[in-house]
User: What shape does this take?
Amino acid sequence: MSSKKTFSIGGIHPDKFKITADSPVREAGLPEYVYIPVKQHIGAPAKILVQKGDKVKVGTLLADADGIVSADVHSSVSGEVTKVEDIEGEFGWLETMITVKVEGDEFEPAIDRSYDVIKDIPYTPEEIVQIIREAGIVGMGGAGYPTPIKAAVPHEKKPDYLILNGIECEPFLTADDRLMIERAEQIIVGAKIINKVLGIQNAIIAVDENKPEAIEILTNISRRYVGVNVQVCATKYPQGGEKQLIQAITGREVPPGKLPIDIGCIVQNVGTVYAIYEAVMKHKPLFERIVTVSGDACARPGNYLVRVGTPASFLIEQCGGVSEDVDQVIFGGPMMGTSAVNINAPITKLTSGILLLSRRITARPEEGPCIRCGKCVDVCPMGLRPFAIASFVRDNLYDELKPLRVADCIECGSCAYTCPAKIPLLDYCKLGKYELKKSK
Amino acid sequence: MFTISTAPHMSSPVTTQTIMRDVIIALLPAALAAGLIFGIGAVKVMLTAVAGCVLFEYLISRYLLHKGNTTVDNSAVITGLLLAFNLPSSMPVWMILTGCFMAIGVAKMAFGGLGKNLFNPALVGRVFLFISFPVQMTHWPRPSWGDFLNTDVQTGATALGILKHLDVQSSATALSDQSSALSELPTYQEMFLGYMGGSLGEVSALALLLGLAYMLYRRVISWHIPFYYLATVFVFTCILWLYTGNIKYDPLSHLLSGGLILGAVFMATDYVTSPLSTGGKIFFAVCCGLLTVIIRLYGSYPEGVSFAILIMNAFVPLIDRHFIPRIYGTGRH
Assistant: This one.
């Protein structure tokens, strides 16, 4: 374990609020109905294979990936399909979801439900990619990029770095932290599986400094695996951003418009790696994940193993419900998550947290004039100038935005968090990106 | 019902108001020093300047610009205090108010208020007063420790004035005159603590450095502008001093006297009128330092800090255009 690393441009240090870091993962239990969206990833919605009245088991394929950039969707419960229609999601928009009425908890027979760690990888790289595809695995760090595409790298682009992203830099969230503590060896075996697919021997597990328990456990176990190393990174936001993490670990930077593989890097979230392990070794498709339920207005915060499709409100009830104090319910983290309109919306493969926040956290003073303090420029991890972007967007001068490279914005929100005048800088950046895309 | 908002859903506790409050706190040691050194006259000047600046901003924002009351951000208090720090303690009240009007009305509000002004408002006020009322603005009461009510105030030249005077006389007057002038020069210790004639807030280097330490601790400003400004003046005068051996170039006197530390810590670091990037800040500070020394030594005034900073303020938009941060993933700057 060498000294801690960090990215060199920008970054912020928001309050951590990791109140659930010591809460072991508990099973959330089964709701009466689950609502499983057919699009929980970037790309095309999966093609629906079931209809009203069909009986399904845990792990039954419900919808098939439509093309390369898409992902399979499996049932997370056993029971009967009662509806296949558009239902209001967390934003209040309609999304196509498969509703399953829960009856018992019967698994597909192929699924190995034991917790024994299996270490031998009996498959060829091609077979592994096929298993990952059939398990419906997507990038669980939040992007939802279908994992098979990332795993099946063309031979001429052999990477020299596999980085496991164990950085959980969003305040409140501890789902990845608990996963690394409780499933450390599985994650490391998962790394060896990806190694085999990529044809390389090494993997670096990047963990931020504020997770000493995960660092210790992973370091101890990784000694038994050749080529797997733990790298401690500074606790800084957005250390977990793919581009920032690559720069922290390798010193390389992903040029605009290029992918990490173009500079020889593959980054996988630890949750995704665990899902790959389960798919390959336990024949288990991706139908559940760890979700942190927390927030300053949450009565009983904790980490839960949740079936995909479970309504957020089911989880919230278990954690003490919605009190008067709750001002916002966030799906994801407070920096990049979405503020929910409908708390009956389901947990998806990408939902890392459900946060109940009070005005104490969410209050944002009234916007004032820019005082040219330059803090937004100092904190932008992409080296952009948010104040300048905002002023051009405000005046509809979209042509001026191109040289400012607003398209490179990773939407981490560091600028808007920091701005002392409380100007919604990220909103302006997003609007600028949108307008530029539209004019193309 | 829940509140719906775009990300991020939390924000830093640092706001414009807390930054301004921190700057005011950082100015307090120098204000206290001014009260102790110059007595009630200093208190009167500070109260008048602060009240004048806040009042003008209130009247203009409320009744002329119809923007509501913009004084709640406390920036006018800072302008008022900084203007007072640049005046002698014997300044008449009506003159101070004219300076406040120039600072707030012309230099700040006419440009669109906080964040829009090109020039540092307090410095514009000071230079206006300096040109309009040169006699009152160069009438320097001596320190009156222990005589708070100023019953027996004497006046004299500032340290920089003495050095300048020395320069003008050196060819014509006898050596004895020079040494008598030199004996009036305060010791380094007096300069550091502030026991010398001068503007209210500029005399005590110790009090100003305490303010600087507080602002650095609270991360209100970065160290670059104060450090490079002071270092440039020190190194430049050092070179001249070593080369000529002339006392008028004495680097420590230049560092500790006049408005240099006040300017480098509180005026050149004003967010609105200084460059954004670190590279730009360093360039700006070094230029301020060079101009200060050139004006002090070769200009017609003994003091050059105000002019140096105002001249560099005008270059800030150009500096900001040149010094832009490197964008991730690109080699260019």
